[in-house]
Design brief:
Structural class: alpha+beta
Number of strands: 8
Order of helices and strands: HEEEHEEEEEH
Helix content: 25-40%
Distance between the termini: 6 Å
Oligomer: single chain
Strand content: 25-35%
Length: about 150
């Protein structure tokens, strides 16, 4: 995600003159990209998880017109790392988790998960995550999204 550049004019969104729009900050760019992904994938929530230079991970969540951030917990960082290592989008329907030390599966609070790794110059920049009810044509939506998200 090239955060030091503005958004592509075609990605500016509804109500914005695409010929004149440029994101003025990293947060604005992330926010607009997450809005676009949430709308495209019909997701209840879109997040961007990125590694920090100190070795941690930061989670950006766009919900109710507000961009919030928090330090990723172990599970959030592990999922982003797994998607990043795979270097391909990961779609999981009916995700389940286990408790450490057991084999008991339990459902998590979302009905589907989509993780899209963002790679630039062979380096993981971050992962866009969408959760909620997966749209039936998710593969077609990915074909629309991937060219716009290439770095």
């Amino acid at each position: 995600m090239p955060v030091d550049k503005g958004t592509d004019a075609a990605d500016a969104g509804p109500g914005v003159d695409p010929s004149s729009h440029v994101a003025h900050s990293r947060e604005e760019f992330i926010s607009e990209t997450l809005d676009w992904c949430a709308e495209l994938f019909r997701s209840q929530r879109a997040r961007f998880v990125r590694p920090t230079e100190s070795g941690g991970w930061i989670v950006y969540t766009r919900q109710n017109n507000v961009l919030s951030t928090h330090e990723a917990d172990y599970a959030e960082a592990a999922m982003a790392r797994a998607v990043g290592l795979g270097r391909h989008p990961l779609v999981v329907t009916r995700p389940r988790v286990t408790r450490p030390g057991t084999t008991d599966l339990r459902p998590i609070s979302v009905s589907s998960y989509l993780g899209i790794p963002l790679i630039s110059q062979d380096r993981l920049v971050g992962v866009i995550e969408c959760a909620g009810e997966a749209r039936p044509d998710i593969e077609a939506a990915l074909q629309v999204a991937l060219p716009r998200l290439e770095l």
